[in-house]
Amino acid sequence: MLIGKPPDIPSSEITPQNVYREYLDRRRFIKTAAAAGAAALTADLIAPRAAFADTGLKTVPSPLSTTGEQLTSLQDITHYNNFYEFGVDKSDPAKNASGLPTRPWSISVEGKVAKPLTFDIDQLLKLRPLEDRVYRHRCVEAWSMVIPWVGYSLSELIKLCNPQPSAKFVQFVSYFSSKVEKWSGESQIFWPYAEGLRMDEAMNPLTLLAFGLYEDVLPNQDGAPVRLVVPWKYGFKSAKSIVKIRFVDKMPDTTWSAMAPSEYGFYSNVNPNVDHPRWSQKRERRIGLPFYDQWRTTLMFNGYSDQVASMYSGMDLKKFF
Amino acid sequence: MSRKTIIIFKTLTWIACLAPAAWLTWGAITNNLGPDPTAKLAFATGLATLRLLAITLAISPVRKLIPRLAWLIRFRRLLGLFAFFYATLHMLTWVALYSGFDVHAMLIDVTRRRFIMAGAAAYLLLLPLALTSTNWAIRKLGGRNWNLLHKLIYLAAICGVVHYWWQVKTGVLKPLDMTIVFAVLLLARPVIALAQGRKTRSAAA
Description:
- The complex is a heterodimer of chains A (321) and B (205).
- Chain A has 321 residues and is α+β, with helices and mostly antiparallel strands.
- Chain A is built from 9 helices and 13 strands.
- In chain A, the strands form 2 sheets. In chain A, strands 1, 4, 5, 8, 9, 10, 12 and 13 form an 8-stranded mixed sheet that branches.
- Chain B is mostly helical and 205 residues long.
- Chain B has one domain.
- In chain B, 81% of the residues lie in helices and 0% in strands.
C-alpha cells in the first residue's frame, strides 16, 4: 500500500521500552567486555585508565520519550546526514566529519543575559542527568527517522543563563571553520549555520540539548559534541555542533530561511497542511525500510501536538510556516 | 568497421546501458538501496537519463571532429532509446512511489511545482522522438522532417537540466557538472558548423 498508510505501525515492528533497555544493557556489557579485552591485550602498552576509557554515557529514562516506534538503525542515523559543512551528499558527513575538533569545546552565552557566560562541554555533560529520549525526526525533505537521543531539556541550561525579560528569541550558532569543513563551499550557504527559536519554544521541555544517541556520545556527523533537537519542527531547526547561544529581542536570522524565505519559514513546524513549494508535506518516507514500505502519514507537529500546540494557538500557521 | 565488431560493440552497449537498471532491480529486491530507497530509485534513474542523453548528444560533434569515428552514428539510436527508457523509469518513480498512482496528487504536482513541470516537459519532448525512432517512421516522415523533429532533443536536454536545478535546494551546486556538460554539447554544434563552414569556404576560394 503506497498512500494513506496510518502512522500506527504493526505491533510486531514496535521496539518495546524493555527491549530497548535490554539493547542498551547489552551494549554496555559489550563495551565493558571489549574494554576489558583490550586492556588485557594492551596492558603493557597503554595506561589502564586509557584502556578503560568508556565513551558511553550514563543515562536515565525519560517520561518525554516517544514510545511505539521502531528505532532507525545506528548505521542509518550515522550515514544519512544533512551537514552541509561536510558536503552536500547524505553520505558525505560520515566520510568527512572526522576532523571536527570536539575537545576542547565550549558554548558561549551572550546577548540579553545578566552576564555573558561560557560553558565547557564537560561541565555541560554533568549539569543534569542525561536522559534517553526517543524522538521522531522529520526532515523538511519529507523523510523521517526515529532516534534515541541522549540529553536534557534546553530549559535547564537557559535557567542558568539568567536571560533578561527583553530576551524574546534565542539564536544558536554552529561551529564553523573552512579549514576543518573544507566542503562548506559546495553550497552557497553563508556560514556559520545559525538557527533560532522563540523563547517559549526554547523553554519547552521537549526541546532537547543533545549530547549523544544510542546511549553513546554524538558521532561527529550527527552534530558532536552538543546539538539542539526540536522534535516538532523540521530537522534543519535543530542546529548541530553549537558554539554560541545568543539571547535576542528580535526574531534572529536563520540560515535556511535567509537562503530561501519562500521555502523555509522561521517557525518551520512540521505541518502536513502546508506544502513545501516543491513537494507535499502530507507524507514522509521512513528511513531504513524497503521502498514499498517507506511512506507514513505526516502528523501535525510531528505527533507532538499535546506538548506544543498551545504555543501556537491563534496563530495562522499557513502564514507563519 | 566490420559487422562482427559492430555486433560486439552493440552487445557491450546493451550491457552497459542495462547495468544501472539491473543494479537497481537487484538492490530493490534485496532491500539494499541505502537508507532511503525511494529517493535512491528516483535519483539514480534521473541521473542515468541525463548521462545517456549527454552521451547521445556527444555523438554528432565527436564524429564531426574525428571523422574516423563516423561509425559512432550507428549507436546513437540505441543510446537515445536507453535515455528514454530511464526517463520512463524515472517518471514511473514519481507516478508509483511519490504519488502512489493518485491522479489528483499528480495534477497538483504538475500544475504547482515547477521542477515537476520541467521534468514532465522533458519527458513529453522525448516521447515523440522515441516513437519515431523506427526505420519505418524515418521513411514515412522523410529525412528532413525527421531531422527537424529530432532537434527537440536539445529542448528536452535543457528541460532536464532545469528540472535538476529546480529540484535541489537553493544554494546547492550539484547540478553544475551536468550543466557544463550539456552547455558544451549544445554550444559545440554552432561552433563546429561555423568552423567547418569557414574551412569549406576557404577551400573553395
